[in-house]
Automatic annotation (TrEMBL):
Coiled coil: none annotated. Its main location: membrane. This is 1,4-dihydroxy-2-naphthoate octaprenyltransferase. Pathway: Quinol/quinone metabolism; menaquinone biosynthesis; menaquinol from 1,4-dihydroxy-2-naphthoate: step 1/2. PANTHER family: 1,4-DIHYDROXY-2-NAPHTHOATE OCTAPRENYLTRANSFERASE (PTHR13929), UBIA PRENYLTRANSFERASE DOMAIN-CONTAINING PROTEIN 1 (PTHR13929:SF0). It comes from the Bacteria. NCBIfam families: menA. Pfam families: UbiA (PF01040). GO terms for biological process: menaquinone biosynthetic process; vitamin K biosynthetic process. It is found in: Cell membrane; Membrane. It comes from Flavobacterium panici. The keyword Transferase applies. One of its GO terms (molecular function) is 1,4-dihydroxy-2-naphthoate polyprenyltransferase activity. Its EC number is 2.5.1.74.
């Protein structure tokens, strides 16, 4: 059990649910024109199964990454980060492959239940669209490192993370509640996507040397470490600016800028990366950015809600 928990890489899970939290609380704090109260828009069932589906997708991605890099020999003695399950021999490739299949089926089942709670027997077109989206997410999580044409080996991992853990996570879950796309929510959705890409980019910066030797052509391998730093600064700073713009356009009061507290560890992180001369020392920064993103999502959702105590009371007394 210990080895399976390690293979699931629990430190990545808070980051994966950041978009779900922001998209859900945005729906709670912004009733639509056709739905007038927060308790009509928000559903604990949707929230719970959205979290469960996203966590399943993240664990699936971690299992598949362990399997793909393990059988390809990418995880070897040159790898800097924590030793993985297949690399160490703690879990066999056959057992990991079975775990990938089981996790895929459970994640798909969770997605189907989520879609049913969101749309019921109505909106058949929406149901089919989100079902196909869920299948695409599952396939993409596996194909990141698995197979001869794994897109993570061709530098497309950043795009996958940005789309599914940023845009789809935030905008998608909000649509499940509201049945509409709010253009303003695109700003934090892009921000969370960029911060998620930042975590992956750190991972790739750390593993640049071993990835280059094994033929894993990540963006870092393609552009080199120096340009990867510039790329990293640009995505983190852009994400921070987008959330501020979101707050301004949302007419936040002074006390609603509490989310800026999350910028303190992010700024310290950027200083650390700027001074870094040894990519091997970047490993602790992955956890810092992941937790900072999660903290940002929590603080931002608190800032979204005015009269939060009244809304919580309404949810527990009259919510679904």
């Amino acid at each position: 059990m210990k080895h399976w928990i390690e293979a699931a890489r629990l430190r990545t899970l808070p980051l994966s649910v950041s978009g779900i939290i922001v998209g859900s609380i945005y729906a709670l704090s912004n009733p639509t024109e056709t739905i007038n109260t927060p308790t009509e828009v928000f559903s604990w069932k949707i929230f719970g199964f959205a979290l469960l589906t996203t966590l399943g997708l993240q664990v699936l991605s971690n299992f598949a990454n362990d399997y793909g890099d393990g059988v390809k020999g990418t995880d070897n003695a040159d790898r800097v980060g924590p030793q993985r399950a297949i690399q160490s021999g703690a879990i066999t490739p056959q057992a990991m492959k079975k775990a990938i299949i089981i996790t895929s089926l459970l994640t798909l089942l969770s997605a189907i239940i989520l879609i049913y709670f969101a749309f019921g027997q109505d909106n058949f077109g929406y149901s089919i669209f989100f079902l196909l989206l869920g299948i695409a997410a599952i396939v993409s999580a596996i194909r990141y490192t698995v197979g001869n044409s794994a897109y993570g080996y061709r530098g497309f991992g950043d795009l996958f993370v940005f789309i599914f853990f940023g845009l789809v996570s935030t905008l998608g879950v909000n649509f499940l509640y509201s049945k509409e796309v709010d253009p303003l929510l695109i700003l934090p959705a892009v921000a969370i996507g960029l911060l998620s890409v930042g975590v992956l980019n750190l991972n790739n910066m750390r593993d640049e040397e071993s990835d280059r030797k094994s033929g894993k052509n990540t963006i870092v391998v393609q552009i080199g470490g120096a340009k990867a730093k510039i790329y990293h600064f640009s995505i983190i700073i852009t994400a921070m600016l987008l959330v501020v713009i979101f707050a301004i356009l949302s007419d936040y009061n002074f006390d609603q800028y509490l989310f800026l507290l999350a910028y303190i560890p992010l700024t310290k992180h950027l200083i650390t990366v700027y001074k870094n001369q040894n990519p091997k020392l970047l490993d602790p920064e992955l956890k810092k950015v992941a937790l900072s993103t999660f903290l940002l999502s929590i603080l931002l959702t608190i800032c979204m809600i005015s009269l939060i105590s009244d809304i919580i009371v309404n949810l527990f007394l009259g919510g679904r």
